[in-house]
Amino acid sequence: MRNVWMWAAVWACWACCGMCAADDPAVTPDEVDVLVVGGTVKGVAAATEAKRAGATRVYLVTPFTYLGEDMAGTLELGLPPGEKPTLPLVRKLWSGTAGLAAFDYTPSHRSPHPRWGFHNDWWERLSEPGNPSNPTDGVYYEDDVAYACELRKTSKIARIEVVVFEKKGRSHAKNPREGDAATGAVTCRVLDGPLKGQTIALTRQGEAGGIGGDAQLLGVDAISWQATVGTELRQVEIKVAKASSAQHQYVARIWFHLADVEKISEPPSPLKVKRTLDRELVDAGVGFLTGTAVRDVFRTDRGEIAGVEIVNRSGRHVIRAKRTVDATRYGALADFGKGLAVAGGGAEFSRVVLAEGKAPSAAGMKVEPFGEAFPISHAGITGRLYRCTFTLPMKDGTYPSLAAAEWEAREKTWVDGMLDDADLLVWRTAAWKDLETRIREGEALGRAAANAPAVAGSAAFNPSSRLPSWGEYDVVVVGGGTSGSPAAIAAARAGARVLLVEYLQVLGGVGTDGMILGYYDGNHCGFTEEFKKANREIGGKHGLYRRAETWRKLCREAGVTVWLGAMGIGAIVENGKVVGAEVATPLGCGVVRATCFVDATGNSDLAAAAGAETEFLSAGEFALQSAGQAPHRLGRDTINSDFGFVDDSSAYDLWLFGLRARAGAPNAWDLAKMPDSRERRRIVPDYAVNAQDVTARRPFPDVVVQSRSRQDSHGYLTDDFRFLSESSANLVKLKRETSLSAVFDVNVPLRSLLPKGLSGIAVVGIGTGCARDVLPMIRMQADLMNMGYAVGTAAAMAAGKGGEFRSVDLVALRKKLVALKILRTETLAWEQDVDVTSDAVLVAAVKTMGRDFTGTHVVYRPENRARALPLVRAAFTAAATDVEKQNYAVMLGFLGDAAGAGILAEIVSGRRKIIPFDRAGAFGGGGQPMIGYMIALGRTKSKAALAPLLKALSGVKPGASMLAVRGPTLALEALGDPEAAPALAEKLKAFGTHAVEKATDLPPLGGYGLGPEMDACIKELALARALWACGDHEGLSRKALEAYARDPRGVLSAHAKAILSSGRGGVR
Prior knowledge:
Blueprint: H1 12-15, E1 31-37, H2 41-52, E2 58-61, H3 88-94, E3 103-107, H4 122-125, E4 139-141, E5 145-167, E6 183-190, E7 199-207, H5 214-217, E8 220-242, E9 249-258, H6 270-284, E10 287-289, E11 293-299, E12 305-312, E13 315-326, E14 346-355, E15 366-376, E16 381-393, H7 399-413, E17 418-421, E18 426-427, H8 435-451, E19 469-478, H9 484-493, E20 498-502, H10 526-537, H11 543-558, E21 561-564, E22 567-574, E23 577-585, E24 588-599, H12 605-609, E25 614-615, E26 631-632, H13 651-663, E27 670-671, E28 682-683, H14 691-696, E29 703-709, E30 731-735, E31 740-749, E32 761-763, H15 781-799, H16 810-819, H17 839-852, H18 856-859, H19 865-878, H20 882-894, H21 901-909, H22 929-939, H23 946-954, H24 962-975, H25 981-991, H26 1011-1029, H27 1036-1045, H28 1050-1062
Parallel strand pairs: 1-2, 1-13, 2-10, 19-20, 19-24, 20-21, 24-32
Antiparallel strand pairs: 3-5, 4-9, 5-8, 5-9, 6-7, 6-8, 7-8, 11-12, 12-13, 14-16, 14-17, 14-18, 15-16, 22-23, 23-24, 25-28, 26-27, 29-31, 30-31
Helix pairs in contact: 2-6, 2-8, 9-11, 9-15, 17-19, 17-20, 19-20, 20-22, 21-22, 21-23, 22-24, 23-24, 24-26, 25-26, 26-27, 26-28, 27-28
């Protein structure tokens, strides 16, 4: 028997620590003076006080994705009646945000442009602090606009400021990027208070500053309009009038500057709690890591805690500590692994919900409102917090029992006006102390730990290989998001005993907590249609909570056992079969066994833990679909976000991304607990669906879902085939709720969901196996829901065959999925794979591709390329027309043959025109053909390539778009000619250095659009990578890459390290 635990003890976060700055508070140490376990307010107070008391190395870990689980996680946000904030930390929690008054507002009308100025949450972003750094921060209008603003509390305002974008452009341009923009006047009409009825004129003060990157490229300036007020305000109307000479205007920010920034305001929102506690630790120089549970506790021979083993999405690590502070909510370290001290089979709990309208009600439940009702003006509703108290059965004090109680508590407290609900229960049986008492206790513990000598006695730091067993099931699904919840429901409906493990406190993933509640593309059929119908029928006024309740109801009706707040972080493998999973919780870790498993983490976490080969970033071209982390705004249903890159397999990168996102959304009620990642780590499967399969709409006898989507890449495509794809008959029209859109059908086979070399496990969601550029076409929610349901159905069948998915009766599976309307009836005839590799098929494809690329999906298949090369070379020699010469030349270039280099060089240098032909529906749209010709020329390795490619490089100036940088750099990288190094070095110097040393040097993130930060980094890396492949010059490439290797942004660091380890010319 072989047990495989997740990546042994060293993981990406710590692997990079040797190259990080020693004083970076994010670096996780091996040994500390004071270790604080628990991200409660008490824990933060203990950590900061220990640092103030002289402890040099203080570190804090919490299993939650944020700090303040005892406030933000429970929604216990108030002080006892009549009590005022006295402690400094509490005063910070209750004070205004960054000297600005929080407010809600409603514009007089929407922006008429769907991309520039109105994308889900952009209205609300107008109130955020910090100068806008990206033109997409501005809301675009073709006329005047008025904002009805209501401060959340009457406040004395020193100054009102409105920031707008201005730019010069072409008059009467249809695209806002090309037109001019200017604001002519800004006024504020006071609606209440001492100045009621008065209109205050704001004056133009000049540039606000803070603009760069894309804004500079577009010639945009940020202009500040201001007025001094000096009195109390609550309701005003801000009118922003377009300059009469301008085509349009952009409104970027509205700010009400407080006269007294220390003035106590209303109780904090959950996000205010999280941001304030983040700031406390960062300012104190205390390192901390979220999403990290304790797996084992090490004690000396005298019984004192000498260290812990922590575990998270990245793996396991041992931290030794001179002193350890237990700041968990229920003192979990004191008797670690035994759970809560429950007596009598039951316990009293409370749970807080925020709702409009009626209060929750259930038999035996006491409901009491607390705090004041508060208006949510942008939604036109009023919310109120309710504390619901009840007694729930508890078999024992273990996490499975607590998870069952949590599940039942959600049943009792659901109400159709729900606006927010607590992540966590409060165990009333334990002594629940008020906020300031908890802080004082934490400070006392921190001082004592800092001043105490190291623990006495000796300790053995040997992590346990044996954990308690928490049950056996037919099917265990790890991850309860878009694919995982349907998988669990399907397997349970088919009669399997099913456990669903989800690390958030809500099911649904990006479709609930991630705030992407609407459907973009996708094949709306089968289970997806069933879910939409159930979601409509369940009631509920607000989308996030209606959806969450729909998932909970469907799981409950199917008989699924659900554990929320539990993370699958390890696998047990016996003879190549996954037979168990390790689950981490706030109360410790345990093992569950099953006949088969479904990895629905979206990051192939369980499969990777079991030893599956995976892929994510490499030394090749940097490309990653961008991600966001959505703000939660009360009463809002959908808020999309897209502002950066994150590696979901790195706990460090998740910590950093969340930290920056929380800082970038200060006026929101809360922030999603997870990033909205569009691309994550994927398995290497038995077979990966590729771009050629998509073009041909290739059928598979083991098809389990038929996805339908456009290439929504949130970035750019990297597959060579985007330059070689023929016109595709696969392109179809899909009628969505709002429009007709051109999309691709993609048949996804079961074999692409099975990790190569492992049995007993299937992977669903965006961790599944496919070519990177295919992922955008199979990751739509509607398709992932059907994928999950299909694989859940297969899992129930596999459970009857010893857990082996490869032994499932494919004909029977297809019939089931057709009956469920997940598959179309055409699939019933798909009995065997189509021939795409025989010599006859290949010869025919080479013959036809010369005319218009027809057949390239066969010629450029990975398994066909070696045999295709001599055929293409012969066809090039025999070509009778210029278009045939051109098309065979580019194919030869991509195959690494120089026979057509002369033609390619003429095209790239401009001496020969590209002969166009119809590529309607080509994979990747057939765009940027010149980039393809450049890359093909570089791949030839011909000396004839150097001059035209250097000429193309010379035209790339600082501030150029990534598309302009991309062609020459990729081509020169492929060429690898040392003679190109000096020119590349000069360009690298001209583009500047954008790596940073410490996480604390990075600005907040938020909104929609990558902005200048990542754009600049990607271009610099492209130049450095090309220079590295050409042998470097004066060490400039090494210097740049080593700076990025030390960069705290995980995806940039990982990419740089991969390049450095590849060796000269080792990129391709």
